[in-house]
Design brief:
- With 294 residues, the chain is of the alpha+beta class.
- The chain folds into two domains: 128 residues, no CATH class; 102 residues, Alpha-Beta Plaits.
- It is built from nine helices and twelve strands.
- The strands form four sheets. Strands 3-4-6-7 form a four-stranded mixed beta sheet. A three-stranded antiparallel beta sheet has the order 2-1-5.
- It is elongated, with a radius of gyration of 26 Å.
- It starts with 8 loop residues before the first helix and ends in a 6-residue tail after the last strand.
């Protein structure tokens, strides 16, 4: 005869402490079993360590053989921990005049990025979260669910493993892609973004624009501890932005007023394109003039 699977000890203790022998429908707890092979939640056997797919993508990024989009792709199926803290909702004053907590809520911890944007911290390892915020409770969720929580909290960034040797910033477009469970390409390698840039030159129709190009911006890079250099190691991914650098080569002869009008027209076209507005988190425009003909 197969032995019955009992309720977990912490649940049984909580029920005993509450003094309730029945559930809210009046049905007794005694004699209940869980189905063989059943799990209590999605991460029942979780050991709290980082997902191997994510750590592998991070190692390739550090070695220069990986890409930022590969790290985000690895997150799509990964489990992360988000910090939850108790937040006082209501206080009461007793007969002795002492103030006590009457109600409290559980709240997500959020951060403020250097540029003022709101960010949700998430951790790939439980111990990293505990070191970062000892009072916070680590809650295990899929990274896609964490991204969805970030969106609901009006956060524009999700920061993985802040305070560790290898923090990684998931910017708004990647965070939205995770939340929607779809693939993501950085704007600086997105063919559709490059096409919008080329179309904008044609739409503006100013012959002063000789060439337009896109590449990774300086904000893509982040500083990691590689273990081999006290100064750390710059990697091509995980930075907070600007992630897109747009280079415009101009013919000589434009005065400041004409230049301002040209840039205003180009930026208006970019902002009016739905894909461009969703795919680009932040950008830097660089102006160039052709060198003298040899």
């Amino acid at each position: 005869m197969t032995p019955r699977k009992q309720l977990p000890g912490h649940i049984a203790s909580a029920l005993a402490g509450a003094g309730g022998s029945t559930d809210s429908a009046g049905q007794p707890w005694h004699g209940r079993t869980l189905p063989d092979g059943g799990t209590y939640h999605n991460f029942d056997a979780d050991d709290g360590t980082a997902d191997p797919s994510y750590t592998g993508a991070v190692e390739r990024l550090l070695a220069g053989t990986g890409a930022e989009e590969e790290v985000v792709a690895a997150l799509a199926q990964a489990r992360v921990f988000i910090p939850i803290v108790a937040q006082l909702a209501e206080q009461t004053v007793g007969e002795n005049g002492l103030v006590s907590d009457k109600e409290s809520d559980m709240a997500l911890v959020t951060l403020q990025a250097p540029d003022g944007r709101r960010a949700l911290p998430a951790f790939t390892r439980a111990d990293a979260l505990t070191r970062w915020h000892p009072e916070a409770r680590p809650v295990a969720v899929y990274a896609a669910r964490a991204a969805l929580s970030a969106v609901s909290e009006d956060a524009q960034l999700m920061v993985l493993d802040p305070g560790t040797a290898r923090p990684f910033v998931v910017r708004r477009p990647a965070m939205w892609a995770l939340a929607q469970q779809r693939e993501w390409l950085p704007s600086y390698v997105d063919p559709a973004v490059r096409q919008v840039l080329e179309d904008s030159v044609a739409a503006v129709g100013n012959p002063a624009v000789l060439r337009i190009a896109a590449e990774a911006g300086p904000g893509v890079e982040s500083l990691w501890d590689s273990g081999s250099s006290p100064a750390g190691h710059m990697v091509a991914g995980g930075g907070a932005g600007p992630e897109l650098a747009v280079s415009i080569t101009l013919a000589p002869g434009l005065d400041q007023s004409a230049l301002n009008a040209l840039l205003h027209a180009l930026q208006g076209y970019w902002a009016g394109n739905e894909h461009f507005a969703q795919a680009v988190d932040s950008m830097q425009v660089r102006l160039h003039h052709p060198g003298p003909t040899p």
